[in-house]
Every structure is written in structure tokens, then in C-alpha cells.
């Protein structure tokens, strides 16, 4: 598998180059548990960076692994697919029994000493199922008891504690060959609304953000996390108008300029109501590109996936700065593949999924940490 690629530059850029870069900034989902002709045609057009699966795509472990294999076969071998899942544990776990049903990270945090073991076991199951990227861990601090969307997905209520567990999770996950993703930057823990349904606001001032929300994300970056996911949340202390996913004042200044993060930044799903219908597709693409978001998630709707692809091409054509930012984003995606795919450990056998040892570990954590 050849991971290196020479990209055209300057006046030699062609439409094919721009299409390739546009596709490499998209991660797409699908409607059901199998690949159909419509999806094949869409993938031939877009040639996305990869795919994300949800519970609607899951029947049982053998089917999931085969689906991931087929999806990987649809894209250029020079750009091997990122195959992603939200397998956090607790209520956000797309593949359930006979896979191990892990307790929520709140219980893992309270049990305190098992985070690396849980992360390692979870990563082995995820990789056996054919995934190479897990949108975990949640690095949000559970700082608002009225939060409807984070809660027990967080490791805890104190920033330092969350940071410690995030670091342990990230290191163990990536040692098993699964790319980790710290989410939802710069912090979704202090919201009272769900960004799947509306646009939340976090009213903390910058000193509070530095002392609470940002702490686990900085720790994840220092620990070498491969990817970070943005939050569709407005932080008036940083940007009164635009949510983090679309803000030039949040993603790039903290992640790139202050912390020196060189990995890939994902948007959260652009089908969520905090974003979709509130901003045009053209606005989304331009704002995310300027903000420093590398890869855009469109998790189900092929119409939106095609629209984003077209706008990602047009943005490069109409603005040299957007084309430069697009080149930089695709270079980071390429570098992520080299880092994690070139010398990856062997893929575990599917028999590792739901082993008695893993189930015993899950029960022990639940007993010690509670729900």
C-alpha cells in the first residue's frame, strides 16, 4: 500500500486535483447495512476520505467487518479509507451485543484505575470489526447537570480528572492502531441544549474556558491524539456570531497556533440542526475552511454530501486562500494515514469481540464506578 502522493501546485493545478482534494475533505455515512449501486456511484464521484457507520448500518460483527472491507475497496488504494465509528461506551455505542457493552465513561472515570485497560480492549474490538478511527473519547467536562447530551459520556466533573482519563484513553487506543478523536472542541459540557436539535451557547468567560473546558483538549493534544472534533456551539467570549465549527477565532488559534496541533480536525455531523438550515452549504464550506476544519462529516444524506463536494471544489476555484487552506487540510489527512497505517499492528481476529475477559472488565468497572 503506497501512502505517499505528489500533489500538483501553483499554476499546474487541474480540476482533477481540486476534485481529489474536495473528496479528501469529506467523511460520509450511508443509510443502511449494505452498499448499493447509488452509494457506489456517489463514491466514484466524490472519492471521500472515508466512511462512518452508525447503528442503522450494523447487523452483527461479521457483517460490520465485511461492510468496512467493501467500503474500503471502493476508494483509491493510494488514499486508504478512514473507517470511523462512535464507539464511546455507554449510550453512544454503535455496535452492541455480541460486542462488549461498555459502561459509560462516567463509570470508568469513577472507577479511576481501569481507563487504559478499557480503552485497549475497546480498541481491539473496534479494530477487529474493521474500523481504524474511533470518534472517542469525549473530552468534555460534565460541568452542567442540566446538559441533555453529554452527562455520563464525560469522564467527570473536574477538568484535571477528565484530562487524566482522556490522556490514558488516547494513548491506549492509539497503541492498538485505532486513531482516537478528542471531542467536542472546545467543550460541550456546559450547555443546556442539544446541538443535534438546536444551536447551544456556552456563556463562560475566557478565564473559565481556560480553567475548565480547554484543559482536557490541551492534554489530549500534548498526548499525541490523532484527531479532534469540533462542537456546533457558540462561545460568545471567543466569537459572538459563529459556532466553533465555523469560527476563525476558535479552532485555528487554540489548536494550531497555541498548542501546535498537527493532526486532523473533524467537524461534527453537518446534518445536525445546530448547523443545517441555519447556514448555507457555501457558508459552511468557506467558514470551516478558513477556521481550520480539515474534514467535514455528512453522515447520511447523499444530497448534502454531493452539495458539500461541489462547494469544496468551487471554494478552491474562487479563492486562492481557500485553495491553500484546502491543500493544507489534505496534507494533514495524508500525514494521518502515514502515521497510523504505514506501520499498524496486526488486525485482531474477530473472536476478540465480546470475549469473556472484556465482559468481565466491563462488569468490574460498572461495579466500581456505578452508572
What does this structure look like?
α1 (15-23) crosses α11 (302-318). The protein has an eight-stranded parallel beta sheet with strand order 6-3-2-1-10-9-8-7. Strands 4-5 form a two-stranded antiparallel ribbon. By secondary structure, it is an alpha/beta fold. The chain has helices spanning 15-23, 37-46, 61-73, 105-111, 115-128, 159-175, 206-211, 214-222, 251-258, 281-291, 302-318, 320-341, 356-369, and strands spanning 26-28, 50-53, 82-85, 87-89, 92-93, 133-134, 181-185, 227-230, 264-269, 295-298.
Notable characteristics:
globular, 371 residues, two-stranded antiparallel sheet, disordered N terminus, alpha/beta, 8-stranded parallel sheet, TIM Barrel
Topology:
Layout lengths: L14 H9 L2 E3 L8 H10 L3 E4 L7 H13 L8 E4 L1 E3 L2 E2 L11 H7 L3 H14 L4 E2 L24 H17 L5 E5 L20 H6 L2 H9 L4 E4 L20 H8 L5 E6 L11 H11 L3 E4 L3 H17 L1 H22 L14 H14 L2
Parallel strand pairs: 1-2, 1-10, 2-3, 3-6, 7-8, 8-9, 9-10
Antiparallel strand pairs: 4-5
Q: Strand fraction band?
A: 5-15%
- What kind of sheet is the major sheet? 8 strands, parallel
Main sheet: strand order: 6-3-2-1-10-9-8-7
CATH superfamily: Glycoside hydrolase, family 3, N-terminal domain
Structural class designation: alpha/beta
Q: What's this, in brief?
A:
With 371 residues, this protein is of the alpha/beta class.
Amino acid at each position: 500500500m503506497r501512502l505517499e502522493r505528489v500533489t500538483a501546485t501553483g499554476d499546474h493545478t487541474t480540476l482533477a486535483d481540486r476534485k481529489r482534494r474536495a473528496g479528501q475533505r469529506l467523511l460520509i455515512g450511508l443509510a443502511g447495512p449494505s452498499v448499493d449501486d447509488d452509494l457506489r456511484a456517489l463514491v466514484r464521484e466524490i472519492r471521500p476520505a472515508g466512511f462512518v457507520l452508525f447503528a442503522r448500518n450494523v447487523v452483527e460483527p461479521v457483517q460490520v467487518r465485511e461492510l468496512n472491507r467493501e467500503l474500503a475497496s471502493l476508494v483509491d488504494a493510494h488514499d486508504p479509507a478512514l473507517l470511523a465509528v462512535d464507539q464511546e461506551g455507554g449510550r453512544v455505542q454503535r455496535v452492541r451485543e455480541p460486542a462488549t457493552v461498555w459502561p459509560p465513561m462516567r463509570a470508568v472515570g469513577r472507577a479511576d484505575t481501569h481507563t487504559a485497560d478499557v480503552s485497549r480492549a475497546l480498541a481491539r474490538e473496534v479494530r477487529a470489526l474493521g474500523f481504524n478511527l474511533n470518534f472517542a473519547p469525549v473530552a468534555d467536562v460534565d460541568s452542567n447537570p442540566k446538559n441533555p447530551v453529554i452527562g455520563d459520556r464525560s469522564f467527570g466533573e473536574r477538568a484535571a480528572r477528565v484530562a487524566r482519563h482522556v490522556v490514558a484513553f488516547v494513548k491506549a487506543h492509539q497503541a492498538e492502531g485505532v486513531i482516537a478523536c478528542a471531542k467536542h472542541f472546545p467543550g460541550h459540557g456546559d450547555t443546556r441544549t442539544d446541538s443535534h436539535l438546536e444551536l447551544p451557547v456556552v456563556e463562560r468567560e475566557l478565564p473559565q474556558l481556560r480553567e475548565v473546558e480547554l484543559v482536557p483538549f490541551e492534554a489530549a493534544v500534548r498526548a499525541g491524539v490523532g484527531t479532534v472534533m469540533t462542537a456546533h456551539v457558540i462561545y460568545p467570549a471567543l466569537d459572538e456570531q459563529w459556532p466553533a465549527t465555523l469560527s476563525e477565532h476558535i479552532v485555528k488559534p487554540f489548536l494550531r497556533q497555541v498548542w501546535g496541533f498537527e493532526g486532523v480536525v473533524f467537524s461534527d455531523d453537518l446534518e445536525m440542526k445546530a448547523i443545517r438550515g441555519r447556514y448555507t452549504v457555501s457558508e459552511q464550506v468557506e467558514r470551516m475552511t478558513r477556521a481550520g476544519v480539515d474534514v467535514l462529516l455528512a453522515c447520511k444524506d447523499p444530497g448534502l454530501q454531493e452539495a458539500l463536494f461541489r462547494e469544496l471544489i468551487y471554494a478552491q476555484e474562487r479563492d486562492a486562500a481557500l485553495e491553500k487552506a484546502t491543500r493544507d487540510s489534505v496534507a494533514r489527512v495524508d500525514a494521518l494515514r502515514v502515521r497510523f497505517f504505514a506501520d499498524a499492528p496486526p488486525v485482531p481476529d474477530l473472536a476478540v469481540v465480546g470475549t469473556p475477559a472484556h465482559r468481565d472488565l466491563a462488569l468490574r468497572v460498572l461495579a466500581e464506578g456505578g452508572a
